[in-house]
């Protein structure tokens, strides 16, 4: 029974790790497009269609 519980915990950890990698890749799209995540009050930049981790930032190419 303990072995089954440990296998279940291992499965949960693996799922969390895999979903974290996908999330990081989504936020790295901005860097791949040649931009940086900047606060919304940044002026003089072109906004790119990529996501940043914070909702107060946007992907910006200077």
UniProtKB/TrEMBL annotation:
Annotated keywords: Secreted, Signal
Domain of life: Eukaryota
Keyword Glycoprotein: no
GO cellular component: extracellular space
GO molecular function: CCR6 chemokine receptor binding; chemoattractant activity
Locations listed in the record: Secreted
Secretion signal span: 1-20
Membrane-traversing stretches: none
GO BP field: cell chemotaxis; defense response to bacterium
Claim: Secreted is one of the keywords in the record: yes
Protein name (Swiss-Prot/TrEMBL): Beta-defensin 33
Species: Cricetulus griseus (Chinese hamster)
């Amino acid at each position: 029974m303990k072995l089954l519980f440990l296998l279940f915990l291992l499965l949960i950890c693996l799922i969390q790790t895999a979903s974290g990698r996908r999330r990081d890749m989504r936020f790295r799209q901005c860097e791949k497009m040649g931009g940086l995540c900047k606060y919304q009050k940044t002026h003089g930049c072109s906004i790119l269609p990529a996501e940043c981790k914070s909702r107060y930032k946007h992907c910006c190419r200077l």
